[in-house]
Amino acid sequence: MERIFDLLEKELVVALGCTEPVAIALAASVAKEHLEEKVSSISVSASGNVIKNALSVGIPGMSYTGIDFTAALGVIAGDASKQLQVLEGVNKSDEQAAIQLVHEGKVTVNTADTPEKLYIEVNLKSLSEKVKVVISGDHTNVSYVSYNDQVILDQSDTKKIPAQKQEKFPDLSVDDLYSFITSVPINRLELVKRSIELNRAICEEGLSNDYGLKVGKTLYDQTKLGILSDDIATYSMALSAAGSDARMAGSTMPVMANSGSGNQGIAVTMPVVAAAEKIGATEEQMLRAVTLSHLLSIYMKSKFGRLSALCGVTVAGASASAAIAYLLNDDLNKIKAAIQNTLGNVSGMVCDGAKAGCAMKVATCSSAAVQSAILASQGLCIPSTNGFIEEDVEQTIENFCRLGNETSSTTDKVLLDMMVNKNVQPKS
Q: DSSP letters along 318-331, please?
């Protein structure tokens, strides 16, 4: 049981803003700590997956976006001790100073030549100093630091990475996770309870105000007009998408991220909370269900990878569906069927970066989660004769993760080329 608590504590982390640009700001902030003189140039080199997610997403409290701006902001005002909340407290004065660095041509951005999916290298120079910082493998894992070419830290070899930073996932199964959530003392789920509180708050913010594409708010408002039904599916879609709307647009409210993703943190919690409210579940049932959703997502992402050419919210959808099935029936076979149904439904959704449109993908996967759980509750499951679905849910998960891992390189390359080379015409 304790090893599962360790997973929750490692993978449920409070984050402010989209985690890829935040990790860039963190690397820049760590580098700045080693300089005594004024920064004269900033160079960022990042993997395609990181660039894809940091290219145009909103930065908390800021009007400007972009990798160059984010790195400059990390240098100007980032607090490395706050980890994924490194940009907490930045203000408009900091924003203007970062913009000035960018406009003066002091920040450059390149795609790193690396097979690593999560790789960020920041090089700072001053009049007589230079610092290099690398974050790799994990959004907060500082794996290399050098000052004036003298190595201060080198954990680029994964064998040297401290235990708390390594991807250490026990040999678990869906059965093990179900056994845990049905037997764990409820008073030990305070971290999960906190995830519900934080993520609920930003979702309510998104429902109340005009953020991004207003996906969640629009869906919610349509239920009040009678255009859409106020049922579990619509409420799950609206509540979850509203949090993504706010987060992608640069809300200053933090979220509880799951496996390095704030959107995933929202998408594993809020559809389950919405379902629990609609069916009148007790707080204990809701907490156990959300815990299952978190754990299944952590479990699948350990195989799927933190960054992929496929959208990580598909993993969240399958996890939330299993949790909703638990609320409906508390039947392990039906929980497994919900996972099968969801993965067989939304598995091909690609990740084309973090941006306002992510809220629509959150809504889609939330709807699929409810649909799949309801079908499973009625004893309906996609058969193993269909596509990559296997009789054993564990093998289906392996196939799904293989799909994400083995197709990512080519798909990511094509997607990134489309994203950086498209001809965007200004609106009249």
A: HHHHHHHHHHHH--
